[in-house]
Amino acid sequence: MRKSITALCLFAIVALVSSQSQIINNQKLPTQKTSVPKDTVKKAKVIVLQTEIKKDTIEEKMGKLIPYKKGAHASYYADKFHGKRTASGILFDMNKYTAAHKKFPFGTKLRVTNQANGESVIVEVTDRGPFVRSREIDLSKKAFMEIAKNKGAGVMTVSIEVFTK
């Protein structure tokens, strides 16, 4: 019986000590704070920048394009005319973007587009011609070769557009 009383007393002491240690822990020692995890997904800020879009088109620089003729035949000046005076009075240079036309005033800017491949070039009318009935326009050699599909050909089918201001 003594053993049972001793065990009971021991049990009571252990219970008392554990409850007092909890009181001591609660009163004297600071308790650990449990941290709640914050939302780790950051919300994106949307910044809208308004910029003025400046168009840098050919039409704004040179004027409005008006279609003149589709299916026109174009050729290029022969090399023998290089350095000779044109009808406008300036010297012909086969390495510039110039053209000869029967009706357009000198200084008129034209956009000539090869219908076979869609390549185009802007030329200035500086001379009269061509003097072959079936041809509409003569281009300088540089302008012609820039848009030619077949570099060996001397004639191509083009569309002509005129710049007006």
From TrEMBL:
Molecular function GO labels: lytic endotransglycosylase activity
InterPro entries: RlpA, RlpA-like_DPBB, RlpA-like_sf, RplA
Key words, A-Z: Cell wall biogenesis/degradation, Lipoprotein, Lyase, Signal
Annotated RlpA-like protein double-psi beta-barrel domain residues: 72-159
Source organism, top-level taxon: Bacteria
EC number: 4.2.2.-
GO BP terms in the entry: cell wall organization; peptidoglycan metabolic process
EC class: lyase
Residues spanning the signal sequence: 1-23
Role summary: Lytic transglycosylase with a strong preference for naked glycan strands that lack stem peptides.
Family as reported in the entry's similarity comment: Belongs to the RlpA family.
Protein name: Probable endolytic peptidoglycan transglycosylase RlpA
Organismal lineage: Bacteria, Pseudomonadati, Bacteroidota, Flavobacteriia, Flavobacteriales
Gene (name only): rlpA
